Amino acid sequence: MNALFHNFLKHKAICPVEIGIRMPKMSKENMALICVSLGWFLIFSGRLSISTILVTIEKSFDINHAEAGLALTGMWFFYGLMQFPSGVISDLKGRKVTILASMAIFSVAYLLIGLSVHYLMLFLMLILLGIGGGSFPTAGIAMLSDIFKERRGKALGIQASFGSMAGFMPIVAPVIASFNWRLFFFIWAGLGIFAMYLFLRCTEESTKLPHGESILKRFVDGAAALRDRKILFIFAINLVATLSWIGYISFFPTYLIESKAFSEMEAGVSFAILTLGGFILKPIIGSLSDRYDKKAIMLFLMSTSAIATVLLVYLHSFITILGVSFALSASSAFFLVANSYLLGLWGERGRGGRLGFYRSLLILTGSPTSALIGFYAAKGGFALPFLVIALLLSIAALLLLMNIALERHARR
């Protein structure tokens, strides 16, 4: 039965014209890149839109920041939890099967979020969104790494830049929400189903599936991902970047509205710059990471983020915040550089499981960030949490600088 299903997935690997869209001839590799990037866009844009219209959702369910932060933490927790098992499954059953299952789950989750009538239902559907969305990135990154071996950084940069196109959503989502915030999630559910069909028809399996290997053995192999000191060090730096980014995308618009008296549109535009900046920067930074020292690029990104976060707290005008938002957008490129660095250290066998374990541990550790910021902000405001983020980024940058200096000294 399993073999029949895989044969079905392989059928018509090149996109059919019956979908009604005339497309120029394109290589299978580039088609896979487009399909994976589209899926990532739908996941990332949905998450950003939740943050953008969070104030409206809170009013709809009569909940406060703490309750909203708890729901977002639940989403992040399961988003992180699913990275590991989805990576192992993608190694054993295939990248394509895993990605299709993920798309089905997050499409249903979007639909049910739009149908939620009570906070508890919203809470559970955000968890379902975390499960579906969390099953996608590891398999998608592994698929692109299988295909683009020599241009891994560039491919991951292009994929990440598609996610950054979600930066339009902080402008678009409030417009849709002005009619009814639920409408947005109905639209995204439909787009998710279309993307799932497109991925089914336009991509092929990218990895050679093993025979007779146990899932337990692959889980053990994946869990050994952090035994290398180099990987453990990058994990610590990556954790700081994760805490920071979760903080930004969870409460950035809400912070600007409440602490700086921005309108929803001004906050949406600022948030759009935060995410859209990556659309320009990520392909460039990804290409640079294929040519130059990846740790030096990480150092630059962490330092820029630390300075920009301090400025975010102390500047108040709309124009200056736009500049700060663009500077902060560079921080999102850290993840693709770190992924490229790690995938270069790991062999192709078990790559999905190792990356999945790494990402699960990373996101699970960072998932309480939304709840912690939300609980503190409910009484004490957002300034102190963002200053703590700036301090952590500064420490991470200093550690990277010391590590680079020690490595260069050892090579002499």
How does the SSE layout of this entry go?
Layout lengths: L1 H9 L17 H25 L1 H8 L3 H17 L1 H10 L2 H20 L4 H16 L2 H11 L4 H13 L4 H34 L12 H9 L5 H31 L4 H28 L2 H21 L3 H12 L4 H12 L5 H16 L2 H12 L2 H29 L1
Helix pairs in contact: 2-8, 2-9, 2-10, 2-12, 4-7, 4-17, 4-18, 5-6, 5-8, 5-11, 5-17, 6-7, 6-8, 6-10, 8-17, 9-13, 9-16, 10-13, 11-17, 12-13, 12-16, 12-17, 12-18, 12-19, 13-15, 14-15, 14-16, 14-19
Verbal overview:
The N and C termini lie far apart (58 Å). This protein has helices at residues 2-10, 28-52, 54-61, 65-81, 83-92, 95-114, 119-134, 137-147, 152-164, 169-202, 215-223, 229-259, 264-291, 294-314, 318-329, 334-345, 351-366, 369-380, 383-411. By secondary structure, it is mainly α. It has a single domain (26-206, 214-411), classed as Up-down Bundle (Growth Hormone, Chain: A), CATH 1.20.1250.20. The chain is globular, with a radius of gyration of 21 Å. The model is unreliable at 1-14 and 16-23 (pLDDT under 50).
